[in-house]
Amino acid sequence: MNLVAARALIAGKIAERVSIESTNGVITAIKSDSDLPVTVAGTLIPGFVDIHTHGAGGFYFSATDPGEITTVISTHVAHGTTSMLASLVSEPIESLKHQIKTLVPFINTTAIKGIHLEGPYLAHAHCGAHDPALLKPPTIEELQMLIGLSGDTIRMVTIAPELDGGLDVIKFLVSKGVSVALGHTGADSHITQQAIAAGASIITHFNNGMPKINSGENISSVALANSAIALELILDGVHINDADVASILSAAPNRIIAITDAMSAAGSTDGDYAIGKLTVRVEKGVARLTSNNSLAGSTLTMDRAFLNLINNFGFSIAQASDATSSLPALRIGLNDVGSIEVGKRADFVELTSDGLIKTL
Fold it and tell me: Against a cut of 0.85, is the pTM above it?
Protein backbone atom coordinates (compact mmCIF):
# COMPACT_ATOMS: atom_id res chain seq x y z
CA MET A 1 0.00 0.00 0.00
CA ASN A 2 1.22 3.48 -0.88
CA LEU A 3 -0.42 6.67 0.33
CA VAL A 4 0.38 10.36 0.42
CA ALA A 5 -0.85 12.35 3.40
CA ALA A 6 -1.25 16.10 3.44
CA ARG A 7 0.10 15.88 6.98
CA ALA A 8 1.36 13.03 9.15
CA LEU A 9 2.56 12.60 12.71
CA ILE A 10 6.18 11.47 12.35
CA ALA A 11 8.61 11.29 15.30
CA GLY A 12 6.29 13.35 17.48
CA LYS A 13 5.91 16.20 14.98
CA ILE A 14 3.51 17.05 12.19
CA ALA A 15 5.22 16.74 8.78
CA GLU A 16 3.75 18.11 5.55
CA ARG A 17 3.12 16.06 2.39
CA VAL A 18 4.37 12.68 3.49
CA SER A 19 4.54 9.61 1.26
CA ILE A 20 4.34 6.26 3.04
CA GLU A 21 5.04 2.93 1.41
CA SER A 22 4.21 -0.44 2.93
CA THR A 23 4.44 -4.09 1.99
CA ASN A 24 2.41 -6.86 3.63
CA GLY A 25 1.14 -4.39 6.19
CA VAL A 26 4.59 -3.15 7.26
CA ILE A 27 5.94 0.35 6.58
CA THR A 28 8.94 0.17 4.26
CA ALA A 29 9.58 3.84 3.44
CA ILE A 30 8.60 7.33 4.62
CA LYS A 31 9.41 10.25 2.34
CA SER A 32 8.86 13.97 2.83
CA ASP A 33 7.92 16.65 0.32
CA SER A 34 6.23 14.20 -1.99
CA ASP A 35 5.06 15.65 -5.30
CA LEU A 36 2.60 12.78 -5.74
CA PRO A 37 -1.15 13.46 -5.51
CA VAL A 38 -2.47 13.59 -1.95
CA THR A 39 -4.60 10.56 -1.05
CA VAL A 40 -5.23 11.45 2.62
CA ALA A 41 -6.43 15.04 2.93
CA GLY A 42 -6.28 15.24 6.72
CA THR A 43 -3.59 14.35 9.25
CA LEU A 44 -2.37 10.76 9.35
CA ILE A 45 -1.85 9.42 12.87
CA PRO A 46 -1.12 5.94 14.25
CA GLY A 47 -4.06 3.60 14.77
CA PHE A 48 -5.26 3.55 18.36
CA VAL A 49 -4.03 0.97 20.87
CA ASP A 50 -6.64 0.10 23.52
CA ILE A 51 -5.16 -2.04 26.29
CA HIS A 52 -8.37 -2.26 28.32
CA THR A 53 -11.63 -3.11 26.59
CA HIS A 54 -14.16 -5.83 27.30
CA GLY A 55 -16.67 -5.62 24.50
CA ALA A 56 -18.64 -3.64 21.91
CA GLY A 57 -21.41 -3.99 19.38
CA GLY A 58 -23.61 -5.82 21.88
CA PHE A 59 -21.11 -8.56 22.75
CA TYR A 60 -18.08 -9.40 24.91
CA PHE A 61 -14.66 -10.91 24.38
CA SER A 62 -15.81 -13.57 26.85
CA ALA A 63 -18.33 -14.86 24.29
CA THR A 64 -18.32 -18.52 23.30
CA ASP A 65 -19.49 -17.68 19.77
CA PRO A 66 -16.54 -16.65 17.54
CA GLY A 67 -18.91 -14.51 15.50
CA GLU A 68 -19.68 -12.38 18.53
CA ILE A 69 -15.96 -11.86 19.20
CA THR A 70 -15.55 -10.81 15.57
CA THR A 71 -18.31 -8.22 16.07
CA VAL A 72 -16.52 -6.78 19.09
CA ILE A 73 -13.31 -6.46 17.08
CA SER A 74 -14.93 -4.92 14.02
CA THR A 75 -16.84 -2.39 16.14
CA HIS A 76 -13.66 -1.11 17.78
CA VAL A 77 -11.73 -1.14 14.49
CA ALA A 78 -14.47 1.01 12.95
CA HIS A 79 -13.67 3.60 15.63
CA GLY A 80 -9.95 3.61 14.88
CA THR A 81 -8.59 0.96 17.25
CA THR A 82 -6.15 -1.12 15.23
CA SER A 83 -4.58 -2.95 18.20
CA MET A 84 -6.28 -4.04 21.40
CA LEU A 85 -6.11 -6.35 24.36
CA ALA A 86 -9.15 -8.50 24.98
CA SER A 87 -10.02 -7.80 28.61
CA LEU A 88 -11.77 -10.46 30.70
CA VAL A 89 -13.62 -9.72 33.94
CA SER A 90 -13.62 -11.82 37.10
CA GLU A 91 -15.05 -15.28 36.48
CA PRO A 92 -14.59 -18.74 37.99
CA ILE A 93 -11.21 -20.06 36.87
CA GLU A 94 -12.79 -22.81 34.76
CA SER A 95 -14.78 -20.17 32.90
CA LEU A 96 -11.67 -18.04 32.39
CA LYS A 97 -9.83 -21.04 31.00
CA HIS A 98 -12.57 -21.59 28.43
CA GLN A 99 -12.65 -17.90 27.49
CA ILE A 100 -8.88 -17.82 27.04
CA LYS A 101 -8.92 -20.88 24.80
CA THR A 102 -11.69 -19.32 22.69
CA LEU A 103 -9.70 -16.09 22.25
CA VAL A 104 -6.32 -17.60 21.38
CA PRO A 105 -7.09 -18.15 17.64
CA PHE A 106 -7.93 -14.44 17.29
CA ILE A 107 -4.67 -13.18 18.75
CA ASN A 108 -2.33 -11.63 16.17
CA THR A 109 -4.58 -12.88 13.36
CA THR A 110 -6.89 -9.92 14.06
CA ALA A 111 -6.54 -6.60 15.87
CA ILE A 112 -6.38 -8.50 19.17
CA LYS A 113 -2.75 -8.52 20.30
CA GLY A 114 -3.19 -10.30 23.62
CA ILE A 115 -5.35 -10.87 26.68
CA HIS A 116 -5.82 -8.73 29.77
CA LEU A 117 -7.07 -10.37 32.96
CA GLU A 118 -8.93 -7.78 35.02
CA GLY A 119 -9.62 -10.10 37.91
CA PRO A 120 -10.32 -12.17 39.83
CA TYR A 121 -7.34 -10.94 41.87
CA LEU A 122 -9.04 -7.79 43.14
CA ALA A 123 -9.97 -6.29 46.53
CA HIS A 124 -13.52 -6.85 47.76
CA ALA A 125 -13.80 -3.27 49.03
CA HIS A 126 -13.12 -1.92 45.53
CA CYS A 127 -14.79 -4.58 43.40
CA GLY A 128 -16.78 -2.14 41.25
CA ALA A 129 -18.73 -4.12 38.65
CA HIS A 130 -16.91 -7.37 39.49
CA ASP A 131 -18.87 -10.03 41.37
CA PRO A 132 -17.33 -9.95 44.87
CA ALA A 133 -18.09 -13.65 45.35
CA LEU A 134 -15.56 -14.47 42.61
CA LEU A 135 -12.62 -12.45 43.94
CA LYS A 136 -9.59 -14.26 45.37
CA PRO A 137 -5.88 -13.84 46.15
CA PRO A 138 -3.52 -14.60 43.27
CA THR A 139 -1.13 -17.55 43.20
CA ILE A 140 1.89 -18.12 41.01
CA GLU A 141 0.73 -21.64 40.22
CA GLU A 142 -2.66 -20.52 38.96
CA LEU A 143 -1.29 -17.71 36.81
CA GLN A 144 1.45 -19.95 35.45
CA MET A 145 -1.28 -22.34 34.33
CA LEU A 146 -3.36 -19.57 32.72
CA ILE A 147 -0.35 -18.09 30.93
CA GLY A 148 0.59 -21.52 29.58
CA LEU A 149 -2.98 -22.13 28.46
CA SER A 150 -2.91 -18.82 26.58
CA GLY A 151 0.28 -19.71 24.75
CA ASP A 152 1.97 -16.75 26.44
CA THR A 153 -0.59 -14.32 25.01
CA ILE A 154 -1.69 -12.91 28.37
CA ARG A 155 0.00 -9.51 28.17
CA MET A 156 -1.44 -7.75 31.21
CA VAL A 157 -2.94 -8.69 34.57
CA THR A 158 -4.67 -6.32 37.00
CA ILE A 159 -3.94 -7.09 40.64
CA ALA A 160 -4.73 -5.53 44.02
CA PRO A 161 -1.21 -5.70 45.51
CA GLU A 162 -2.37 -5.84 49.12
CA LEU A 163 -3.84 -9.33 48.63
CA ASP A 164 -1.98 -12.28 50.12
CA GLY A 165 0.83 -13.24 47.75
CA GLY A 166 0.29 -10.15 45.61
CA LEU A 167 3.86 -8.86 45.61
CA ASP A 168 5.37 -12.27 44.83
CA VAL A 169 2.91 -12.72 41.96
CA ILE A 170 3.81 -9.29 40.56
CA LYS A 171 7.49 -10.28 40.49
CA PHE A 172 6.60 -13.57 38.81
CA LEU A 173 4.45 -11.93 36.12
CA VAL A 174 7.10 -9.34 35.32
CA SER A 175 9.68 -12.13 35.01
CA LYS A 176 7.39 -13.74 32.41
CA GLY A 177 7.12 -10.51 30.40
CA VAL A 178 3.56 -9.80 31.54
CA SER A 179 2.69 -6.18 32.34
CA VAL A 180 1.18 -5.70 35.78
CA ALA A 181 -1.48 -3.09 36.43
CA LEU A 182 -2.55 -2.18 39.96
CA GLY A 183 -6.29 -1.80 40.25
CA HIS A 184 -9.49 -2.39 42.18
CA THR A 185 -7.39 -1.78 45.24
CA GLY A 186 -7.18 0.18 48.45
CA ALA A 187 -3.41 -0.25 48.76
CA ASP A 188 -1.63 2.12 51.11
CA SER A 189 1.45 4.05 50.07
CA HIS A 190 3.89 1.47 51.44
CA ILE A 191 2.34 -1.49 49.59
CA THR A 192 2.05 0.61 46.43
CA GLN A 193 5.73 1.52 46.55
CA GLN A 194 6.62 -2.15 47.03
CA ALA A 195 4.43 -3.15 44.09
CA ILE A 196 6.08 -0.58 41.82
CA ALA A 197 9.51 -1.73 42.96
CA ALA A 198 8.42 -5.29 42.10
CA GLY A 199 7.69 -4.17 38.54
CA ALA A 200 4.08 -2.97 38.35
CA SER A 201 3.99 -0.29 35.67
CA ILE A 202 0.35 0.72 35.11
CA ILE A 203 -2.65 1.79 37.19
CA THR A 204 -5.94 0.33 35.99
CA HIS A 205 -8.50 3.10 35.30
CA PHE A 206 -6.85 5.59 37.65
CA ASN A 207 -9.27 7.28 40.08
CA ASN A 208 -11.85 4.52 39.62
CA GLY A 209 -12.03 1.36 41.71
CA MET A 210 -9.50 2.89 44.11
CA PRO A 211 -9.09 5.86 46.46
CA LYS A 212 -9.68 9.17 44.71
CA ILE A 213 -6.98 11.77 44.19
CA ASN A 214 -6.44 14.12 47.13
CA SER A 215 -7.73 11.47 49.56
CA GLY A 216 -4.51 11.11 51.55
CA GLU A 217 -1.35 9.04 51.39
CA ASN A 218 -2.35 5.95 49.42
CA ILE A 219 -2.02 4.37 46.00
CA SER A 220 -3.44 7.46 44.29
CA SER A 221 -0.93 9.91 45.75
CA VAL A 222 2.01 7.56 45.14
CA ALA A 223 1.01 6.79 41.56
CA LEU A 224 0.42 10.42 40.70
CA ALA A 225 3.88 11.37 41.96
CA ASN A 226 5.86 8.38 40.65
CA SER A 227 7.23 8.88 37.13
CA ALA A 228 7.64 5.10 36.66
CA ILE A 229 3.93 4.39 36.57
CA ALA A 230 1.48 5.04 33.71
CA LEU A 231 -2.11 5.98 34.48
CA GLU A 232 -5.07 4.57 32.57
CA LEU A 233 -7.90 7.08 32.23
CA ILE A 234 -11.48 6.56 31.03
CA LEU A 235 -12.09 9.88 29.30
CA ASP A 236 -15.85 9.64 28.84
CA GLY A 237 -16.80 12.61 31.03
CA VAL A 238 -18.51 10.25 33.48
CA HIS A 239 -15.87 8.16 35.22
CA ILE A 240 -13.78 11.20 36.15
CA ASN A 241 -14.99 14.78 36.32
CA ASP A 242 -13.24 17.32 34.12
CA ALA A 243 -11.59 19.12 37.02
CA ASP A 244 -9.96 15.93 38.27
CA VAL A 245 -8.90 14.97 34.74
CA ALA A 246 -7.28 18.37 34.31
CA SER A 247 -5.46 17.95 37.62
CA ILE A 248 -4.19 14.49 36.65
CA LEU A 249 -3.09 15.64 33.18
CA SER A 250 -1.25 18.57 34.71
CA ALA A 251 0.58 16.35 37.22
CA ALA A 252 1.38 13.51 34.81
CA PRO A 253 1.04 14.78 31.22
CA ASN A 254 3.37 12.19 29.69
CA ARG A 255 2.08 9.19 31.63
CA ILE A 256 -1.51 8.99 30.44
CA ILE A 257 -2.93 5.89 28.75
CA ALA A 258 -6.40 6.50 27.34
CA ILE A 259 -8.58 3.40 27.55
CA THR A 260 -12.21 2.65 26.86
CA ASP A 261 -12.93 -0.04 29.49
CA ALA A 262 -15.78 -0.63 27.06
CA MET A 263 -18.58 -3.01 27.92
CA SER A 264 -20.86 -4.59 25.36
CA ALA A 265 -22.95 -1.47 24.71
CA ALA A 266 -20.05 0.46 23.15
CA GLY A 267 -20.96 1.17 19.56
CA SER A 268 -24.48 -0.07 20.31
CA THR A 269 -27.65 1.37 21.90
CA ASP A 270 -29.08 2.07 25.34
CA GLY A 271 -30.83 -0.84 27.02
CA ASP A 272 -30.30 -3.77 29.36
CA TYR A 273 -27.02 -5.68 29.27
CA ALA A 274 -24.91 -7.81 31.63
CA ILE A 275 -21.39 -8.12 32.95
CA GLY A 276 -20.91 -11.76 33.87
CA LYS A 277 -24.01 -12.54 35.92
CA LEU A 278 -24.56 -8.91 36.95
CA THR A 279 -27.33 -6.93 35.24
CA VAL A 280 -26.42 -3.57 33.69
CA ARG A 281 -28.64 -0.79 32.42
CA VAL A 282 -27.33 1.69 29.88
CA GLU A 283 -29.06 5.06 29.76
CA LYS A 284 -27.78 7.99 27.69
CA GLY A 285 -24.62 6.01 27.06
CA VAL A 286 -23.81 5.49 30.76
CA ALA A 287 -23.61 1.89 32.02
CA ARG A 288 -24.53 1.15 35.65
CA LEU A 289 -25.26 -1.98 37.66
CA THR A 290 -28.97 -2.27 38.39
CA SER A 291 -28.18 -3.66 41.85
CA ASN A 292 -26.33 -0.67 43.30
CA ASN A 293 -26.02 1.92 40.50
CA SER A 294 -22.22 1.50 40.35
CA LEU A 295 -20.56 2.36 37.04
CA ALA A 296 -20.14 -0.81 34.98
CA GLY A 297 -17.52 -0.04 32.37
CA SER A 298 -18.12 2.53 29.66
CA THR A 299 -19.58 2.85 26.19
CA LEU A 300 -16.56 4.89 25.10
CA THR A 301 -14.67 4.33 21.86
CA MET A 302 -11.06 5.37 21.28
CA ASP A 303 -11.85 7.98 18.64
CA ARG A 304 -13.91 9.86 21.23
CA ALA A 305 -11.16 9.51 23.84
CA PHE A 306 -8.60 10.96 21.40
CA LEU A 307 -10.83 13.88 20.44
CA ASN A 308 -11.73 14.56 24.09
CA LEU A 309 -8.04 14.99 24.92
CA ILE A 310 -7.69 17.57 22.15
CA ASN A 311 -11.02 19.38 22.37
CA ASN A 312 -11.65 19.30 26.12
CA PHE A 313 -8.18 19.28 27.66
CA GLY A 314 -5.95 21.12 25.20
CA PHE A 315 -3.70 18.24 24.20
CA SER A 316 -1.79 18.57 20.96
CA ILE A 317 -2.19 15.90 18.28
CA ALA A 318 1.19 14.48 19.30
CA GLN A 319 0.27 14.36 23.01
CA ALA A 320 -3.10 12.77 22.31
CA SER A 321 -1.49 10.20 20.02
CA ASP A 322 1.03 9.34 22.72
CA ALA A 323 -1.83 8.63 25.13
CA THR A 324 -3.91 6.65 22.66
CA SER A 325 -1.19 4.83 20.71
CA SER A 326 2.48 5.14 21.64
CA LEU A 327 2.49 4.81 25.43
CA PRO A 328 -0.04 1.98 25.67
CA ALA A 329 1.88 0.02 23.03
CA LEU A 330 5.14 0.62 24.89
CA ARG A 331 3.82 -0.41 28.29
CA ILE A 332 2.53 -3.79 27.11
CA GLY A 333 5.50 -4.57 24.87
CA LEU A 334 3.89 -4.10 21.45
CA ASN A 335 6.99 -2.99 19.57
CA ASP A 336 5.55 -2.97 16.05
CA VAL A 337 2.66 -0.52 16.57
CA GLY A 338 1.97 2.83 18.23
CA SER A 339 3.82 5.18 15.88
CA ILE A 340 4.45 5.77 12.19
CA GLU A 341 7.97 4.42 11.59
CA VAL A 342 9.72 2.20 9.07
CA GLY A 343 9.42 -1.39 10.24
CA LYS A 344 6.20 -0.85 12.14
CA ARG A 345 2.70 -1.88 11.13
CA ALA A 346 0.96 0.31 8.57
CA ASP A 347 -1.91 0.94 10.98
CA PHE A 348 -3.30 4.43 10.48
CA VAL A 349 -6.32 6.60 11.07
CA GLU A 350 -7.02 10.07 9.69
CA LEU A 351 -7.83 13.17 11.70
CA THR A 352 -9.94 15.04 9.16
CA SER A 353 -9.96 18.79 8.61
CA ASP A 354 -13.33 19.00 10.36
CA GLY A 355 -11.93 17.35 13.47
CA LEU A 356 -13.26 13.83 13.10
CA ILE A 357 -11.55 10.44 13.07
CA LYS A 358 -11.76 8.47 9.83
CA THR A 359 -10.63 4.84 9.64
CA LEU A 360 -8.48 3.90 6.67
Answer: yes
